[in-house]
Design brief:
Layout (H helix, E strand, L loop, with lengths): L3 E9 L4 H17 L4 E9 L6 E10 L2 H9 L2 H4 L3 E9 L8 H8 L2
Antiparallel strand pairs: 1-3, 1-4, 2-3
């Protein structure tokens, strides 16, 4: 099965800042471990100008939606109550996008 790209949008629960800070090392280590879901681009969503995290966004490569859903259901941020909602969408970068060729290169590396 060919791997597809997926965008994962995660929204923090109210008052999750302390849990986010506490669980960040575990969450970050998991992103580097590898497996059926390959993170390509990720980072926190922040409040304008303050740097306060309110969620996370990811672009990942995986063979199927189910693999992505399982991966994020067991992420330390999800299991630890940081993320209140997680949405998974299939993604196809436009060939006209300035980063479209970079994404394709990442997929082929």
């Amino acid at each position: 099965m060919t791997a597809s790209l997926w965008v994962v949008h995660c929204v923090d629960a109210p008052g999750a800042a302390a849990r986010r800070q506490e669980l960040r090392p575990h969450h970050s280590r998991r992103l580097r471990e590898g497996g059926p879901v390959r993170p390509l681009l990720y980072g926190p969503l922040t409040v304008d100008g303050t740097g306060e995290a309110v969620g996370s966004v990811f672009v990942v490569e995986a063979p199927a939606r189910e693999a992505v859903e399982r991966y994020f259901a067991t992420d330390p941020f999800r299991m630890g109550g940081v993320w209140e909602r997680v949405r998974v969408d299939c993604f196809s970068p436009s060939e006209r996008s300035p980063l479209g060729s970079a994404v394709t290169a990442l997929q082929n590396s």
